[in-house]
Write a structure and sequence with these properties.
Largest sheet: 8 strands, mixed
Number of domains: 4
Strand order of the largest sheet: 6-5-7-4-8-9-10-11
CATH class of the largest domain: Alpha Beta
Distance between the termini: 60 Å
Radius of gyration: 40 Å
CATH topology of the largest domain: Rossmann fold
């Protein structure tokens, strides 16, 4: 039995090579996966190895041997006559002529029409099933050879498709089970159109209690006929989601507050959420689109090149920048910018777990006394991280929320949980790194479409 070894990157590719070389009747003897070593440990990759042969399996040969022994050692005429007589006595039938027995058990190879493929794998029974046994449900044995199920290795594409389908079903069942804590969310307890949108909410990681709340409001608002209309259900879902997103609704045109001071806006938040880039976008919009005079203040003297980054933006846009190294320097810096229409304050990023740094940040804010304090959070962070940050930074009394990096977010359902946890109004969202284009006002209808339809909405 000649053996051949085939190697490929995937099992499908290896099976294709086996079938191409040995045909559909190839026999798979062994498979294994291994990793090839690259140069200096780099560039290693997974490989699949298949050992196969095109020879007839040994088990099949063994199955044919009893048939050949039966034909080569045919019983003598006397033995066949005795056997026939015994059968007649047992079943009450006349004995069959010896010639018939000889014809039945004649060597197949003596037949000119004999071919090896026509030889049965197992010799047929000598005697038929008696009539008494037939009445009890027994049937005559078939003279054909039992068909053998084709090898699974012959259909790798079908197996892969079946695997993908089973995986999709498993994911669907998992979503249903994970959302079955409330009786109202069970598949049979709501119309199909409503249930499809409920699954869309869970896929976007909307908290179960919030999803149940939305579905309950939609069900209360619509009639049975309207609940059967997918488009009406969708529009109602979008409207109910939008109601859960509190928007600041600030005027895009900055104005001086009633106290006569420049509109002072401070940005706070954890490290790496994009505060400095967002501040540059706000400054560019106020200066270039609305013609306002803008002053910049930064307290971020901890991060390497943070001041230089903001100074570069200030030079490009044509703004005045003040660097504040201590809380005592904050008020003098603001007084120097009192002629500006808007003052934007960039603060150092602080970990939500660092209580001392958060207290230090509070002293800066107390000295600045900003009209608006915007908490900046990145939508690429995990839900638990965002909720924890919103909880800790709430001690600094922010009254606005900016969500950054929507273009990089995986899902958007967490936005509902964050806005509810932070108890602040959404002011802006950012959708990229370009200044000043990739920033827009936080609109509830825009957020609701993202939550229900995903990034492509």
């Amino acid at each position: 039995m000649p053996l051949k070894v085939y190697r490929a990157r995937t099992m499908s590719e290896a099976l294709a090579e086996v079938k191409k070389d040995l045909g559909a009747e190839a026999v798979i003897l062994h498979t294994r996966s291994f990793k090839t070593s690259g140069l200096l440990g780099l560039g290693s990759k997974n490989m699949v190895e298949i050992t196969a042969t095109d020879d007839e399996p040994t088990a099949s040969k063994r199955a044919q041997r009893p048939a050949r022994r039966t034909t080569e050692r045919s019983p003598t005429p006397a033995a066949r006559s005795l056997s026939s007589a015994a059968a007649s006595k047992a079943y009450g039938k006349p004995a069959a002529p010896v010639a018939l027995a000889q014809s039945t058990f004649a060597t197949p190879k003596s037949d000119p029409s004999y071919t090896p493929e026509s030889e049965p794998a197992v010799a047929l029974m000598e005697h038929p099933v008696p009539p008494s046994h037939q009445n009890r449900g027994f049937s005559q044995p078939s003279a054909g050879v039992m068909p053998v199920a084709p090898s699974r290795q012959d259909k790798p594409a079908q197996d892969a498709s079946l695997e993908d389908e089973l995986h999709s079903i498993k994911r669907m069942i998992g979503r249903i089970l994970s959302s079955s804590s409330s009786p109202s969310s069970a598949p049979g307890s709501m119309p199909d159109a409503l249930f499809e949108h409920y699954l869309a909410l869970t896929e976007q990681s909307v908290a179960t209690e919030i999803a149940d709340e939305i579905v309950g409001k939609v069900r209360d608002e619509l009639s049975a006929a309207e609940l059967a209309d997918a488009e009406i259900v969708r529009e109602t879902m979008l409207r109910q989601i939008a109601k859960l997103v509190p928007a600041a609704g600030d005027s895009p045109l900055p104005r001086r507050p009633a106290d006569g001071r420049p509109l002072t806006i401070a940005l706070i938040g954890p490290t790496g959420v994009g505060k400095t880039t967002t501040l540059a976008k706000l400054a560019a919009v106020a200066k270039l689109r609305h013609g306002r005079t803008v002053g910049l203040v930064t307290t971020d003297t901890y991060r390497i090149a943070a001041v230089e980054q903001l100074r570069t933006y200030a030079d490009i846009i044509g703004l005045t920048l003040k660097v504040v190294s201590s809380p005592a320097e904050m008020r003098p810096a603001l007084e120097e910018l009192s002629d500006c229409d808007v003052i934007l304050i960039d603060t150092a990023g602080r970990s939500q777990h660092d209580g001392d740094r958060l207290c230090e940040l509070r002293t800066y804010l107390d000295e600045a006394d900003p009209h608006e304090t915007h908490l900046v959070l990145s939508t690429t962070s995990a839900e638990a991280v965002m909720l924890r940050a919103a909880e800790r930074f709430a001690e600094l009394r922010p009254n606005r929320l900016i969500l950054t990096k929507l273009d990089e977010a995986v899902n958007f359902g967490v936005l509902l949980s964050v806005t509810r946890k932070a108890e602040v109004k959404l002011s802006y969202v950012t959708t990229g790194q370009e200044v000043p284009d990739h920033i827009e006002a936080g609109r509830p209808d825009r957020i609701s479409r993202l939550i229900l339809g995903g990034p492509d909405a």
